[in-house]
Specification:
Layout lengths: L11 E6 L2 H21 L4 E7 L1 H6 L2 E5 L8 H4 L3 H17 L4 E5 L2 H14 L5 E4 L4 H4 L3 H10 L2 E4 L2 H9 L4 E3 L4 H4 L6 H8 L6 E6 L4 H6 L1 H14 L3 E6 L6 H11 L3 E4 L3 H7 L2 E5 L2 H8 L4 E5 L3 H10 L9 H6 L6 E3 L5 H13 L1 H15 L7 H11 L2
Helix pairs in contact: 1-20, 4-5, 5-7, 10-14, 12-13, 12-18
């Protein structure tokens, strides 16, 4: 298929598949970029997606909402097997009935590998682009999954240089586009504007708490993070907490946690980036938000836990080992931000790391220097548009 500047053909049909809160964010940025780039070449697009509300607001038609059905871990994934299967079945029926011109997979390894295998069997002529590939290049315990990603992808769009190298060495056609969060930073408010918007008084030490973007994290992470916050505010009277909601469904559980631990905390519904910019420190789960904090130069303590049975199986049976968990450390493969994983994720350890970053200027400066070095590996502004152009070029 070739493009014409004055084409009057039917809209290009693009199907995007992703899951969880982070996938919905990345998908929304891509949806907007695809509309922009299609307009540049004189074409219209129609985008159907498995994703969340952000993608829908960006202009995608949702076939299924997958933002709340993700999990990390073996036992943790069990409750989502049936909902995921139902949405996958709906997607396959849709694709069979309305074959798209192009499919884009974003992260979400298990469901997207299954979808890719289905497409290769039943719709082999439909090109597939894998954007933000699962981090098999860091911690995959199954080389087969890496091979399946390479096999299903007509073009793999890498967000990290090391990721591009890894997949290229294994036979993938790779384009390094940079990390989409670089684009998101263009619209970030200034620190003073963010603090004014949130009503943060002068002299207040603002700490962002980021306990959950998945259901399992409400149970496994929120209590230990809130216990640490309780101890921190007892040590530093000037501390106040702001908690941005990743999903509205978590508001009730977070409000109950705030009351239980007596936290001086404010829950913020729709201004996550404002909370992050305004913060002197963040304490939160491992995930995409760690990279956003790094790009905003906000010191952070990263915490993660899974079910102890899951951890035991991963370590003892599967031999699962990871060098790091949080994206800032993975980019450089060195400890830029403190990570407290599993047994190390205790309130006392969290408080100790938090106090060090708040009270020790040298420790804080070392972390910020690490951020600056890491930033060089994330590419230049325009990531979304580069990714959209590479995707449309597949046609």
């Amino acid at each position: 298929m070739t493009f014409s500047q004055n084409s009057s053909e039917n809209p290009l049909q693009i199907f995007i598949a992703t899951g969880e809160v982070s996938g919905d964010l990345q998908g929304a940025l891509l949806v907007r970029a695809l509309y922009r780039q299609a307009k540049e070449i004189g074409r219209s697009v129609q985008i159907t997606a498995l994703g969340g509300e952000r993608m829908m607001r960006a202009g995608a038609s949702l076939l299924g909402n997958t933002s709340e059905i993700g999990a990390v871990g073996l036992l943790e994934s069990l409750p989502f097997i049936l909902p995921t299967w139902r949405i996958q079945r709906r997607a396959r029926r849709y694709l069979q009935q309305y074959p798209p011109d192009l499919v884009v997979c974003i992260d979400y390894m298990g469901p997207n590998l299954s979808l890719g295998a289905y497409l290769r069997r039943h719709l082999p002529y439909v090109p597939i682009s894998y954007y933000i590939a699962p981090q098999a290049w860091v911690w995959s315990i199954s080389p087969q999954n890496t091979a399946r990603i390479v096999e299903m992808s007509d073009r793999l769009l890498a967000i990290f240089p090391e990721e591009a190298r890894f997949f290229a060495e294994r036979g993938a056609k790779v384009t390094w586009v940079g990390h989409p969060l670089v684009d998101l930073m263009r619209d970030a408010p200034t620190r003073s504007a963010a603090r004014a918007q949130l009503g943060i008084a002068e002299g207040t030490i603002a700490v962002a708490l980021l306990p959950a973007s998945r259901h399992q994290e409400i149970r496994a992470l929120m209590p230990v993070i809130f216990q640490a916050a309780q101890r921190l505010q007892a040590k530093i009277p000037e501390v106040r907490f702001w908690i941005p909601l990743s999903l509205e469904a978590y508001r009730g559980a977070i409000a109950r946690g705030i009351a239980r631990y007596g936290l001086r905390a404010t829950v913020v519904g729709k201004h996550t980036q404002t909370v992050l910019v305004a913060a002197d420190l963040a304490i939160g789960k491992s995930g995409t938000v760690n990279l956003e904090l790094a790009l905003l130069n906000v010191p952070q303590v990263v915490v993660y836990r899974v079910n102890p049975v899951t951890a035991w199986i991963a370590r003892k049976v599967l031999g699962f080992k990871i060098p790091f968990m949080s994206p800032p450390n993975l980019v450089q493969m060195k400890p830029i931000v403190p990570e407290l994983l599993q047994e190390e994720a205790t309130p006392d350890r969290i408080v100790a790391e938090a106090l060090a970053l708040l009270c020790d200027p040298q420790r804080r400066d070392r972390l910020l220097e690490g951020y600056a070095e890491m930033r060089q590996c994330l590419g230049e502004v325009g990531v979304g548009d580069r990714a959209a152009r590479a995707i449309l070029d597949l046609l």
